[in-house]
Amino acid sequence: MDDIVKQALAKWPNVPHCYGWLLLDARGHWRMRDERAQHLNLPGDKLQHAALCSFIARNYGADARGCWYFQNGPQRVYVQLEAAPYIVRTDPVQGWLLHTGVPLGAIDEVLLTEQGALLLRSADVLAQLDDRDVASVLAELHSGYSPVTDEALMDWLEGHSSASLTLRGHPVQRVQAASLPARYGYVSVPAPAADPS
Predict the structure, then answer these.
(1) Separation of alpha carbons 92 and 94, rounded Å
(2) I need a surface site. Which of 7, 8, 90, 159 has the fewest CB within 10 A?
(3) Between vectors from CA 25 to CA 21 and to CA 27, what angle results, nearest 5°?
(4) Is the pLDDT confidence value at 54 over 50?
């Protein structure tokens, strides 16, 4: 977290949280959602300002409920997740690179949903692969020593095959997309906590 953000939090500790105005899309873009976008359930306008996007990425985290947010000075701006808490891309120099600009790290799990979305977990970071990289990465899937054909992959995704798949030596787990938030402890659409009174 930036020092200026820590100072603002200390100075104004009770600023109300903001919900619905910021979205992380499935390609790792931050999107500003005005009232119209929220009302029509649209993704919103992609933020283009590099310094602002970098500031958001540096001050991005999760609360105890698993709701992800951007700490904007004293205000916590909760982020709606179109896919997962992080988006990962392939980078020719750094390997797996998160949308925040940080390398992913050692892979602990490789997951593939019924829709063909690929997710990687490294420690407590869960990242969905940017769809623009899916074709090249899925071409690296193997069953035993052989590359997986498109037909064999479709059979596997549909649950008609019990073949073991690997990606770069890591076993691939079949997972239902709807189960991911509960399994990995994140909230896709944060909302204010219920009032205990």
Answers:
(1) 6
(2) 159
(3) 150
(4) yes
Place of tokens 């052989």: 146
Cβ atoms of 26 and 130 within 8 Å: the answer is yes
Compute how many other C-beta atoms are within 10 angstroms of the C-beta atom of residue 177. 16
What is the H or E stretch that residue 76 is in? strand 75-81
According to DSSP, the β-strands at 75-81 and 18-24 are: parallel
**What backbone torsions phi and psi does residue 90 show, to the nearest 5 degrees?**
-90, 140
Mean pLDDT within 78-86? 97
Run of H or E including 55: helix 50-58
Buried b (16+ CB within 10 A) or exposed e, 105-120: eeeeebbbbeeebbbb
Q: What Å distances lie between residue 85 and 39, 95, 114, 129, CA to CA? A: 23, 19, 19, 11
Mean pLDDT, range 46-51, rounded to an integer: 95
Can you tell me the distance from the alpha carbon of 53 to that of 99, in angstroms, rounded to the nearest whole number? 10
Which of 185, 183, 182 minimizes the C-alpha distance to 173? 183
